[in-house]
Amino acid sequence: MSLQFARAEELSIEELIQRNVVDACDKLNKPKTTCQVHKELKPKKSAVVETAAAEAPIEETLQAKNLNRCDSSRADIPAQTEMTSYSEKKFPVSRLTESDVQDVFKYVNKQKSRYLIKDGWAATGVCAARSHLIADDIAKDCKVESGKVFVSPSRSAATLWMFKNSLWVEAKGRKFRWDEFHVANVVYVEKNGQAEPYVIDPILFDKAVPLNQWEALVKSQDPSASSWVTSSRAFGQSDRHEDDPNGFMNTQRAHEAIEKAQRDERLMRKPRP
């Protein structure tokens, strides 16, 4: 009798199944498991984007200073600074003045129907679609390249990471809840020779705010929540494989998600016969 079969006979049926079937499946599915994803994200509790040194001061022409950043007649293109994603990919993000980033925010915030910026559960459920459309629109109309910052609720260590909390946020007199993740757009703003990350999130704020201020609010009820950044190409939490800074920016999915949310909301509010 060979040594291999002798050892196999000493193992119970359960041990053989564990060794030959369960372990093999675990190895096969390892790159796709939720647990692995959260294991990678766990250390990134905060400060997912470091403040960077500005390569060169922003120099605006007189015309640029007198025009809104999203004015169609404004021809200058903002300087850029590299940002690094969760997967160590580098991608360019626009570096703006404080005035310009607030111009971009106002451009976004006034389009409440397009981005579904309003009260109600429908607006809460389309943050991925909203962020995707905003990234595409400000690139075309404001010549601003943005990244995306995600926050996902923590899992309970006491339950082997099987059960997640939710992100509970109260802002602008409203309460929000995200069970999977929340995402918004991030750019750099030059301040005192440094490029500081700012977030454009019209659901939670009335202006663009520093990343640490945004994170403090989103994580206020779940300080152990995980944060990470991607380029503008990744759509949602499960679409990080799409995080190709040079990839095609497909907005069809985003349009469909917002249109569906608007239809569902209308049906929910429709008076009963």
Automatic annotation (TrEMBL):
Positions with biased composition (Basic and acidic residues): 253-273
InterPro entries, per database record: Gln_deamidase_2
Listed name of the protein: Protein glutaminase domain-containing protein
Gene3D superfamilies per UniProt: 3.10.620.30
Organism: Bdellovibrio bacteriovorus
Residues covered by the Protein glutaminase domain: 101-216
Domain of life: Bacteria
Pfam families: Gln_deamidase_2
Transmembrane spans: none
Disordered, as annotated region: 229-273
